[in-house]
What we know:
Protein name: Dehydrogenase
Low-confidence stretches: none
Number of domains: 2
CATH class of the largest domain: Alpha Beta
Strand order of the largest sheet: 8-9-10-7-11-12-13-14
Domain Gfo/Idh/MocA-like oxidoreductase N-terminal: 5-120
Keywords: Oxidoreductase
CATH architecture of the largest domain: 2-Layer Sandwich
EC number: 1.1.1.312
Pfam families: GFO_IDH_MocA, GFO_IDH_MocA_C3
Amino acid sequence: MKPVRLAVIGAGKLGGYHANLAAKLEAFDLVAVADPHPVSCEKLAAKTGSHAVAKVEEVLDRIDAAVVATPTATHYDVVTGLLAAGKHVLVEKPITPAAAEATKLVAAADRAGVVLQVGHVERFSPALVAAGDAVKQPRFIRSERTSGYTFRSTDIGAVLDLMIHDIDLVLSLADSEVVEVWATGLSVLGGHEDMASARLVFANGCVADLTASRVSYELRRTMQVVTARGFTAIDFATGKATTVSPTHEVLRGEFNGESLPAERKAELFAGKLFEEVLVKTQHEAPPVNAIELELLDFATAIQTGAKPRVPGAAGRDAVAVAERILASIARNASVERTLHRAA
């Protein structure tokens, strides 16, 4: 198949990742890097063997597709122009700051007959892939995503910057309508929330607790998933997954720990419990570059007409839930202020 002629819009850190990878992949012909800041743009273009342009409009007639890695506030306008020109788009998460804008982009992509993919890169995590069927039909999900303050993406808060990854993952795993949202948040260093905690309740009974912070001294990207068949812990940072699978005796409710002889209890307590009753398995997937897999998925969708793993509609749905979380944070903050005045 012919390589996809590509432009990367945005010469920042994330745009750099995409451009450097695309330049090495046979699936792409990296035509240009577009950014209004000439120094960073020319440097990245020179490194990747592409052209530096201030605006993507300068090369529209020479590309088939674009990766949009610009500030979130600009996504709607940039992607709208690309779709109107009939170009395929991979836009970094979140697709837009508002669900209404995302809905318009999804409709525009459908009208143009082009691919609109969203950069929820955790869907390509080797740890998630390693977990496989163990995380299907979840009953309870708990995620934690924390990092230090990077001074990037300050046009949005922790919900759209960090938690949006886990919102997308939870929606894809639960595969059900969100019927209840409760959330709280706190601004520490800026005008947006830097810490947030949310509980989502789904129509099928699944419950998800999500925590995000960008003012933490600890880097953490973890998720725990409980199903009727067992428990799975995923570490997105290390690419490892651990499953705990109860034996058939436990699943059928036939295991009674109280009735065990003292020697058997001691044996299980000493370490056999997670070998013989609640069987623990460590899954170590081969190291992969998730952004590279995301780009290859984009190329495949363009070249074959296959649906991308994270289509525009999925990005829209994640933002819609994020809006409900932010609304709940705002309501609870109002209540806190009212109580504080009353005190």
